[in-house]
Write a structure and sequence with these properties.
The protein is an all-alpha fold. The chain has 6 helices and no strands. It starts with 6 loop residues before the first helix and ends in a 5-residue tail after the last helix.
């Protein structure tokens, strides 16, 4: 029920959450540890997304409160994703890092930037709120899964040189 001319005012907080998350949390990824911070950030974002889904299912959200919820999700998820891109590329030898960054970024953009909006657009077009809630719950499960993967397979890369993490091939 948001007038078309006002949609940008609801998009702006999402963009701010995307920007402020990595900006304000960055120092802890290299002090507390990337594996722990990526895992915790994805877990927090997944739990927040699940709470937004449950609140939507209970018809408790307004456009404003939904925007606040999404902004909080984006705050943590964006910080986790940004650090994960960098950390994943650092696991490759120097000669392959630029390619690894490009590949991980392209895949993330494909799924998060192209496939997800199409899927959620379809779910919204159904006019069935339960379909949208199911989409949110699925997104929450993906983020919680990313958290578990980060905790199990993540590399403790904080305060280490890139050569310590992955020696060059040459």
């Amino acid at each position: 029920s948001v007038p078309t001319g006002h949609v940008g005012w609801y998009i702006l907080p999402l963009a701010l959450g995307n920007l402020l998350g990595p900006f304000l949390l960055a120092r802890w990824f290299d002090t507390i540890g990337r594996r722990r911070m990526i895992g915790a950030s994805y877990a927090i974002s997944g739990i927040l997304m699940l709470l937004v889904a449950l609140a939507m299912h209970a018809h408790m959200l307004t456009a404003f409160t939904q925007t606040l919820g999404w902004s909080a999700v984006f705050f943590f998820a964006s910080a986790a994703a940004s650090s994960a891109y960098l950390t994943a590329s650092e696991l490759f030898p120097l000669e392959m890092r630029a390619f690894a960054i490009a590949l991980f970024y392209a895949l993330g953009t494909l799924f998060g930037g192209a496939a997800a909006p199409v899927l959620f657009g379809y779910l919204i077009e159904t006019g069935n709120i339960d379909s949208v809630v199911a989409g949110y719950a699925f997104a929450a499960i993906l983020m919680l899964g990313a958290s578990i993967i980060a905790w199990i397979f993540g590399v403790d890369a904080e305060n280490k040189s890139l050569e310590e993490i992955a020696p060059p091939l040459s």
